[in-house]
């Protein structure tokens, strides 16, 4: 499945055709009746495999719950090598092998300038994923390194656009990332752009698919991922790609404030506050009302009221134009005001017929009508 017709990056030649979904023998046995992957049938196409004899592992540069990441070499190319754990029991090993296969398949399906480039994988003697090596640090480490300073506003918005474009391409391919957070966003060496990494929790979206709630990191997770009673591991929940939009709202808040979301709380306390008390990080008064509107629209409780990433990109580009207008431009940006009512609902009023957020009027009209009834 390629990017949809409205995927801007494909139209501009930046979102390339993905590798088709196939099992090793070429038969579509890895797909369920509704078109989603079935874990028991996941397999990696042989064209995605690299020769392990050409891999040379160097120093460790990162570590997660399911594996370690090393700087290394594949042939004459400097790369990042992710080595996944095998598991301590046969059952755990089988689950980790399916997780590995799913990550490889997802990474191979999409190519975009703001997604870390997939090079290949190997299954023996280790489960390994090879990607391009970004010599910059993660967005998390970079933000911590400049704290308490905040990012220049232009830089923050450009990072946000990089992230939104990567997510737009994933969603156009029917992929939910489910773990969007600064730790999984890597900066280029010159720190000019950001790329999304780590597809370990990515899943193909399907209307009928039930997915586990034990996904992502609690501070960035959408409330609908939690159970209605407790955060029980492995519980099944229905949700859609708007969980990524919620996470993006938290990340955008971080880009503008350079603070930890729900600071002073443990991960579980943050999850409880977001899911059961409808709490969100406080938006500082000095943040532009336009940006506050984008953030708050991303993390509203109702997933269906959150904007798509194509809408987010349009809003961010419009805002970027207002702070960095092109020279000798005869066009003036339209003005608008954003207000937040006492009960937390958002209202958008424009001073001109073609306000820069006018395309969102219909998106929130249904909710305003529902609230007034």
TrEMBL record:
Q: Which UniProt keywords apply?
A: ATP-binding, Kinase, Nucleotide-binding, Serine/threonine-protein kinase, Transferase
**Keyword set includes ATP-binding:** yes
Q: Does the keyword Transferase apply?
A: yes
What is the originating organism of this protein?
Rhodamnia argentea
Q: Please report which protein family the annotation says this sequence is part of.
A: Belongs to the protein kinase superfamily.
Q: Which residues bind ATP?
A: 82
Protein kinase domain mapped to chain residues:
55-320
Q: Where is this region: Disordered?
A: 1-35
The record, for Gene3D superfamilies, names:
Phosphorylase Kinase, domain 1, Transferase(Phosphotransferase) domain 1
What are the Basic and acidic residues biased-composition ranges? 7-30
Which catalysed reactions does the entry list for this protein?
Answer: L-threonyl-[protein] + ATP = O-phospho-L-threonyl-[protein] + ADP + H(+); L-seryl-[protein] + ATP = O-phospho-L-seryl-[protein] + ADP + H(+)
User: Which Pfam families does the record cross-reference, listed alphabetically?
Assistant: PK_Tyr_Ser-Thr (PF07714)
Q: Tell me a GO biological process for this protein.
A: signal transduction
> What name does the UniProt record give this protein?
Serine/threonine-protein kinase STY13
* Single GO term (MF): protein serine/threonine kinase activity
Annotated Gene Ontology cellular component terms: cytoplasm
């Amino acid at each position: 499945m390629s990017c949809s017709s409205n995927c801007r990056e494909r139209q501009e030649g930046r979102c390339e055709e993905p590798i088709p979904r196939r099992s090793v023998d070429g038969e579509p046995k890895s797909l369920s009746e509704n078109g989603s992957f079935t874990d028991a049938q996941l397999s990696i196409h042989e064209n995605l495999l690299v020769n392990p004899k050409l891999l040379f592992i160097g120093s460790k540069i990162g570590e997660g719950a399911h594996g370690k990441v090393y700087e290394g070499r594949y042939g004459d190319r400097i790369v990042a090598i992710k080595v996944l754990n095998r598991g301590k029991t046969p059952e755990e090993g089988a689950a980790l092998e399916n997780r590995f296969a799913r990550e490889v398949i997802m990474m191979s399906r999409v190519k975009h300038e703001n997604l870390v480039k997939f090079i290949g994988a190997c299954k023996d003697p280790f489960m390994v994923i090879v990607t391009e090596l970004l010599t910059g640090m993660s967005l998390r480490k970079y933000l911590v390194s400049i704290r308490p300073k905040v990012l220049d506003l232009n830089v923050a918005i450009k990072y946000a656009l990089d992230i939104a474009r990567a997510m737009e391409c994933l969603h156009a391919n029917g992929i939910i990332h489910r773990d969007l957070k600064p730790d999984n966003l890597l900066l280029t060496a010159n720190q000019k752009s950001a790329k999304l990494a780590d597809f370990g929790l990515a899943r193909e979206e399907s209307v009928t698919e039930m997915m586990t709630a034990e996904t992502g990191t609690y501070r960035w997770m959408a409330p609908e991922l939690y159970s209605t009673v407790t955060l029980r591991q492995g519980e099944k929940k229905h949700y859609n790609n708007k969980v990524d939009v919620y996470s993006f709202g938290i990340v955008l808040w971080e880009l503008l404030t350079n603070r930890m979301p729900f600071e002073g709380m443990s991960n579980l306390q943050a999850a409880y506050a977001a899911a059961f008390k409808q709490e969100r990080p406080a938006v500082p008064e000095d943040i532009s009302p336009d940006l506050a509107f984008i953030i708050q629209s991303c993390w509203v409780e109702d997933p269906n009221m959150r904007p798509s990433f194509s809408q987010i990109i349009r809003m961010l580009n419009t805002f970027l134009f207002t702070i960095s207008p092109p020279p000798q431009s005869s066009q003036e940006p339209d003005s608008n005001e954003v207000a937040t009512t006492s009960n937390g609902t958002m209202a958008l009023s424009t001073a001109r017929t073609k306000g820069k957020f006018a395309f969102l009027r219909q998106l929130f009209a249904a909710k305003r009508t529902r609230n007034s009834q």
